[in-house]
Design brief:
YbaK/aa-tRNA-synth-assoc-dom; aminoacyl-tRNA deacylase activity; alpha+beta; 38% helix; YbaK protein; YbaK/aa-tRNA-synt-asso_dom_sf; 6 helices; three-stranded antiparallel β-sheet
């Protein structure tokens, strides 16, 4: 009898969790739909044809990468990526915005969840990009505070994507993503529980990111 009660409680807990998830999805659906529609319009108008949006459960970030891969029908966990806003904390005094993509105050870097971002490689790349005209000590890329990230992109934590940002921030795409097969990866979709999949080649053609190795496995 005790075993049956425990099983009943487990079933009830699962049912309640499912109901809570459905209620959350319904409450978010209007925002998700509006954002997906807006970003889809931007992508289509810029010649991007192969992309997809998916709404994920509220416990998405509590799940393993393998579970997230299955939810998105991604080819592998290495195809799961994230967009991170960086700030150059040592930028020259006149560098206050993103008007010069070669020497910007802010950058968005897209890396895999399975990789570790390496800020030193970005520093070295930007130094070389500027042909030594900017002292290396003037490059120090760090994770931007959440409030700054929100203001620049218009997207909150776990929702950041480099499509449809409020500010035209230069984008860095980790070279490891370009080497993925098939060439289709997933990243944030503008809402916490909205994810976007996109053909890598079309992403590159539209976004025109800097591409170099900026992570370690």
């Amino acid at each position: 009898m005790e075993v049956e009660m425990e099983e009943l409680e487990r079933v009830q807990t699962r049912i309640l969790k499912r109901i809570a998830d459905l209620e959350l999805q319904l409450s978010l659906s209007s925002d998700d739909d509006a954002t997906a529609e807006r970003l889809s319009g931007i992508l289509r108008s810029n010649g991007v044809k192969e992309f997809n949006f998916k709404v994920v459960p509220s416990d998405y970030y509590d799940r393993s990468l393998e579970a997230r891969r299955d939810l998105l029908s991604a080819p592998s966990i290495h195809h799961l990526c994230k967009s991170i806003v960086l700030v150059n904390t040592q930028a020259q005094s006149h560098v206050i915005d993103c008007s010069n993509r070669n020497n910007s105050k802010y950058y968005v870097v897209v890396v895999q969840y399975t990789a570790r971002f390496n800020a030193e490689t970005v520093k070295n790349y930007l130094y070389s990009l500027n042909e030594g005209k900017v002292p290396k000590k003037k490059f120090n890329l760090r994770l931007a505070p959440e409030e700054i990230s929100n203001n620049l992109t218009g997207f909150g934590h776990n929702a950041v994507t480099c499509i449809g940002m409020k500010t035209d921030i230069p984008v860095i795409l980790d070279e490891a993503i370009v080497k993925l097969s098939p060439d289709y990866f997933w990243l944030g979709g503008g809402e916490i529980y909205l994810k976007m999949g996109i053909r890598t080649s079309e992403f590159i053609q539209f976004v025109n990111p800097f591409i170099f190795s900026c992570s370690t496995a």
